[in-house]
């Protein structure tokens, strides 16, 4: 397994010999619904589109996960696995091989990597987007991704999971209303899944935001404050924030198999 973070929620995941581009925002600004005055994200670094992509994986249809400007630069013939909302976005852009996954449905890539959709972030009162569990069928190594810190209790049945990509540092409106859930939910998730690594996702140091909303967004917690919480709860999970653009290979240990 090798992971490359491109800041925000954009990742290149290499598992089972396949290259999966997850929620790519690599070029241009991030604007929601042409409302740049409300909030606009700019990356200090423009990242090239990775080569030899086997699959694009999209968790949400919003612009920070299905970024139109980036998706327009990618070969439309690359297969896409997406939430129902994200599938609408890529189909409108002309992608030709789109598989929609509802919660608890699975897709198998080249008989070597299983991708399972799980309930993720609520977007409005009636829409819950996707999180994903990726599992190498030969080794059993697994990865879980949810970009806003909303974790379904149904995940417990998939434990343990080796690597988790989710917010550790949260973001709130006015310091009260969570936008990205952080420390408390990340700790609960680690208790459920017993991961070997938890890696911070969502906006990092390479992204700056401007607009009206930025004045009411406040960070919640730090990685440094989270580490002792793991120790206090007898968890050996390593927590990291990667440097954008630099590949990382987690040193994973095979799990002991318990026979009932």
TrEMBL record:
Q: Name one Pfam family in it.
A: Lactamase_B_3
Q: Give the coiled coil ranges.
A: none
Where do the TM regions start and end? 20-39
Q: Which domain of life is it from?
A: Bacteria
Record keywords, A-Z: Membrane, Transmembrane, Transmembrane helix
Tell me which InterPro entries the record gives: RibonucZ/Hydroxyglut_hydro (IPR036866)
Q: Give yes or no: UniProt keyword Acetylation.
A: no
Q: Which PANTHER family match?
A: METALLO-HYDROLASE/OXIDOREDUCTASE SUPERFAMILY PROTEIN, METALLO-HYDROLASE_OXIDOREDUCTASE SUPERFAMILY PROTEIN
Q: What is this protein called?
A: MBL fold metallo-hydrolase
